[in-house]
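User: Here's a chain of 693 residues. Predict its fold as tokens.
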Amino acid sequence: MKKIFRFIVMTLMVAFAVISCDLPAAPDSARKEPPMEAGKGRITIVLSGTAIAPPAAAGRAASRAVAWAGDPTIPLYYKLTFTHATIGSYTLTLGAVSEKSLTLEEGSWTINATAYDDNAYTNLVGNGAKAVAIAHDVPVTETISMILDSNYEAGLSTYFIHNEEELRRIGPGDLSITSGKTYHLVNDITLTDPWTPLGDDTTSFGATFDGGGKKITIQSFAPTALMGQYLGLFGNATQATITDLTVEYAANAFGTQDSPLELTFSPTRVGGLAGALGNTTATGITVSVLGDGGIYATNNILGASLEIGGITGRLNGDGSHPFAGNTFTGNIGTGDIGTGDIGASAPEVLVGGIAGYSNIAITNSHAVGTITVKGTSTDTTSTLFGGSTGAVAIAGGIVGGNYGNIEKSSFTGGVKISAVISGYAGGIVGYSASGNVRSSYAAANGATDRTITATASNTSSGIAYAGGIAGIATGTGYKIENSYAYADVKADGRVKGIAGGIAGELGSSQEITNTYALGTVEAVGTPAAVTGNAYAGGIVGNTSNSNKVNNSIALNSTIKGNGNPVVHGIGDSVTTDTFNFAAANIIFTPAVTSVVNLDGYTAYSTDGNYNNVTLFREDFQRETNKAIYISAMPISSAVPITVGLNWNFTVGVNDYWKYLGTDYPYPVLSWETVPHTATGGLPTGTYGMSFGW
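Assistant: Prediction complete.
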């Protein structure tokens, strides 16, 4: 017995020793899959679109991935159904697994995949199918793209747009344009048929449209669209959200400058994105017109008003919806406006590179192109449009008629108004009734179509206003500040012309501060016998009601008045709390006396004894000379001045100015990243845009 017990103990000890040993693994070359049964093959099935991430993180796929639906943190549950012509069908439940390897009998199979958002497999999310061929011992991998089920999509009120057919389901089709709906653009879409805008005055577009960085290209508009009040990709959008979208138009989608789209509704609002945006969030929008095309429209209805913008014709709201980061590239114009007999009713035409009319804040928005508003009269001695009066035209590089703040925005191009009863042309705003313009610039010089020009031909009331930033700015307490214009500005009025390097005219306690103007300024008024019918100023043409110009610099090459002009280095009737400089080498026509130049100092002091150091345009160039901007003090025998212009070049929260590049030697704004050319313009391709002048 003892021998038997000893044998058992020794046997167990050996077994435990074997178990505790680390046996060497077999080499990879020695490992083999078990041989495949005869008549069977191995397949790996991958179900696409199952990344657990929201659309913004997952990117945009070519198919409607089912994981985009519902809460992205909730897994999807899958089933596979296999069908063979002779063997029959069977279903495999995968659970929350999106990849599965298995063996199937040889032959042709159809695999149907279904996805659910619950492990009870009751709420169908999407499905997909694929035909596969199985061969003996030939492993294959097949991906089945899962497509979102339309009923589930409708239940979520979230739709993914892949093509023109799906896009046309919105509005006139079977998908609502009202609030509560969300549309995600998945692919670039080029429309093959004429387009009808989404939303009108009866039912506005109120949904969310996420462009996903994709592009919609429009070739033309449906004839019925020209009979409506709103024209654009969207017609009238109210309380909507439109983001991250590019809209591209064929060169002649809006006709041409000589033959624009003729609209038959009054008033009419036209925009590259939308005819009108009301209390709508619009961010990351890019609108462009191919070739030398533009957004052109005209309206010959009696007394009709017209609002046209590169992004939208009318932009209004309560200020709670952001409008930022939007860009337009192309031309904008009215064609021949008001060619019908308008009787005693004068139409109002508002045109802007971003918006024709705006009463909300616009930030970080940019426009490149030529803005043109023209009447039909070439005879400057006659009334216009076949009636007793003509059109009032208001045009600006960013906004035509403005009632909101504009900040960190720019315009590069030209603004031209001609043959109208009165015209207001500005590099940023045509007519600013309220709102500030801050940290913005306009570049409109160097070519015939790159000027800011207003021509008012009416013999009884033809007044023209033109300014590098604003044609006219009114409204108590508002400012144009930390901004600049490199522009050739001209105001030509049959009664009066008023032109300024920054603003044509200021009214109602406005202020211009920390600005500079380059380029030329010209004011024309007839008849010459009328005193003060032409006002030209390096910063402002004419002012009233205690307006002020502070810490600003007139660097214009010429300031010219025709008729019986009033010409100033800074501006007529200017008051100041500080002082302003006017370059000593400005050429005035007619020549002015030193008295006229007193509103802008032409020399400064390097010490307390007011040594006469004359300042020329070149002295304000180059970063090494920026101390002139900051600390130079003008010569004054009457008023002791102890501080300079005090422009802020310090990097920080309020860093308004800096130098950028070598071609353009003057200060630029802190948010600018692309250097200007020597003439102040932008090189081709800036802001992702390309436009040839």
